[in-house]
Amino acid sequence: MTEETLRKGVLVDAEELRALLVEDARLVLLDVRWSLADPDGHRAYSLGHLPGALFVDLDQDLAAAPSPEQGRHPLPDLEDLQAAARRWGIDDGDPVVVYDDSGGTSAARAWWLLRWGGLTDVRILDGGLQAWIGQGGLLEDGDVQVPPGSVVLTPGNMPVAEADDVADLPGRGVLLDARADERYRGEVEPVDSRAGHVPGAVSAPTTDNLREDQTFKSGGELNEVFSAVGIEKETEVAVYCGSGVTAAHEIAALETIGVHAKLYPGSWSQWSADEARPVATGIERPGSSVT
């Protein structure tokens, strides 16, 4: 596939979205605003969202109940995800576009889960809400109501890694830690039970996938980002973050350059809560020791 084809399979720009909203009445638009600092995205959604967009509650709709054993955002049961997708009005074959106001870092969780559930036409609005406004797109306020959909989801359409899988991956593949550098190095840990990273993981912060305007970097730029941490087209890759949310963004970035990576859903919140799991600090590079 060409770079453009790969990118268009994951991302849609604001100009194209404006045309699609006019041309395709079946398109479903999902607002997935959320952040660790302010998880109540519905407040922002109510004040202004893309026309026709449905609000998605990341904590309630895109995750099961948190636990030390499973992490802060375990994957939801398929039946619960399907019920949410039907509530959003999704029918089989409908195209879906997801967006947020943070460069896709929370919307990518919906992108990944819906693809995991078998939907093939799901894309992230590149640049999110800011890109839409920048293209002259209008916003509407209040909640949107739609008739329920009838989509049928099936599990396992995106690859998943468990804790034992990621423990064994360094050496034959690359394990990416998508959190901020300082959390990876173990200098700070604002949320989880221990500071540091999975031994053998290399740091690849999600923020490195984005330009200053919160759009994804070009294919050439992303190839440079990921080749610097030892990733080529055929490399076996798994990604984790704090709780499996921003790791999905890293997977989306990798998909735009033709690299298919596994998500470790429990991520650091699960790993660090298990006292039997070792923790590393400092900096590691592919094939090297901690420095």
3D architecture notes:
This protein is of the alpha/beta class and 291 residues long. It folds into two domains: 132 residues, 3-Layer(aba) Sandwich (Oxidized Rhodanese, domain 1); 111 residues, Oxidized Rhodanese, domain 1 (3-Layer(aba) Sandwich), CATH 3.40.250. Helices cover 31% and strands 10% of the residues. It has twelve helices and nine strands. The strands form two sheets. The protein has a five-stranded parallel β-sheet with strand order 1-5-4-2-3. It has a four-stranded parallel β-sheet with strand order 7-6-8-9. Helix 6 crosses helix 11. The model has no long low-confidence stretch (mean pLDDT 95).
Quick recap of the structure?
The protein has helices at residues 3-8, 14-23, 41-47, 58-61, 78-87, 107-116, 128-134, 163-168, 181-185, 219-227, 246-255, 267-273, and strands at 11-12, 28-31, 54-55, 96-99, 122-125, 174-177, 202-203, 237-240, 261-263. It is α/β, with parallel strands linked by helices. The protein has a five-stranded parallel β-sheet. It has a four-stranded parallel β-sheet with strand order 7-6-8-9.
- Terminal CA distance: 39 Å
Which geometry do the CA atoms define?
globular
According to CATH, what is the topology of the largest domain?
Answer: Oxidized Rhodanese, domain 1
> Structural class given helices, strands, pairing?
alpha/beta
Radius of gyration: 18 Å
Q: How helix-rich are the residues, as a percent range?
A: 25-40%
Order of helices and strands: HEHEHEHHEHEHHEHEHEHEH
Which superfamily, in CATH terms, is the homologous superfamily of the largest domain?
Rhodanese-like domain
- In round numbers, the mean pLDDT is 95
Number of strands: 9
- What's the number of helices? 12
Unreliable parts? none
What's the architecture of the largest domain in CATH terms? 3-Layer(aba) Sandwich
CATH class of the largest domain: Alpha Beta
Going across the biggest sheet, name each strand in turn. Answer: 1-5-4-2-3
Largest sheet: 5 strands, parallel
Number of domains: 2
Q: DSSP strand (E) fraction?
A: 5-15%
